[in-house]
Design a protein that fits this description.
The chain is built from 21 helices and no strands. The chain is mostly helical. The chain is globular and about 60 Å long.
Length: 424
Amino acid sequence: MDVISLLIFVVIIIVAFFRKNNIGILAIAVGVIAIRIFGLTDKDFISSISVSLFTTLVGITLLFSIITSTGALDLLARKIVALAGKRIWLIPILIFVAGFIIVAVGPGGVPALAIIPPLAVAIAAEVGYNPLMLALIGISGMTSGRFSPITPEASIIINVIEESGFQGKVIPVIWLNTLILNAILAVILYIIFKGYKVKAPKISIEKKKIEKFNMKQIIALLSIPIMLGFIIIGHINIGLSAFLAAGILLILHIADDSSCVKSIPWNTIIMVLGVGALLSIVNKMGGIKLLSDNLSKMMNSTTATPIMGVSAGLLSLVSSALGVVYPTMMPMCIDLGKSIGANPAALMSSVAAAGALSGISPMSTGGALIIAAIAGDKNIHLTKESENRIFVQLLTIAVTSLILLIILSLLLFNPISNLLCPII
């Protein structure tokens, strides 16, 4: 059953891509048949559709639909582009740094997902960069900042270290390793998407000539920090926080609610939720465990670091990195490191990086919000075929990033960890 479930999942993605169908609809349709083969019930399948992800996607896309309708996001994008002037190569760097700072100052990776992808897409549409490239570079910057000592991610790791009694400055090592990995990934993305071919406009946007924000636009943009306040201070779910901020804007008549609801990229949301539901069935049938178990059989002191990373990446596809992967696998890194003679800091770096990297998969929140941001931008007109192509591109990039993780974990993670956090 585990092998069959994996095969079904792969075949559905291939068929939908070449037949130019919505992958999510086909995934749900095939899932209805598959659960009967696997002895599951309709209730099992329906419960596998992530209500949390649905809330996040609808809430965030609704909020940014309202903000976009005021012209605030486009104007903000033009102002950022004006800062770069004719030095267009600065824009990907600015997006990377913005993602890094927003996350590293404390909120962690989840709240920043509401800001960076829509902003990156708006800037890309303004300049001519590939929106997928710029959004991914922004998320690479975000991932680089996720393990600063004051983020929720770091708090989980610090707690694990304290409970285990392990001695060593692990957090700086994890932070440095993930920063190096994501900086290299950002450069690779820039090259793959041929960002270097985008030329500066002959007449650059001058800062002085750009109009000022009007009152509606200012209020719309203020909803973003208000939403972050709900998340960080009020501990409210990101999707519910977005709905709350959107509700405030609509009460103030900042935008027309009916047109904003119509602007939500429902096709994308169905695609992401449908594929996620089928992947959840694959997980229930043991497909993910099958892959992970086969990887673990090849583990020794040399291969443990990349294998732990790939295992964390696979687990992160079907669960939350923050809520499941890190609390589950970080303690394993310390015990495993002691038993096979590997540096726990290197193993934890690999798990930390992989758990975050798999977030760019289209089945995860990061990848889903990228697709939603591109689909929801009024300056970008996506067809059904191009949405499917972006889905496959994100899946391919997620796999490629794990391959990069394997290479760097072998070449850099162990030496850096042994240098900065030697095994005592």
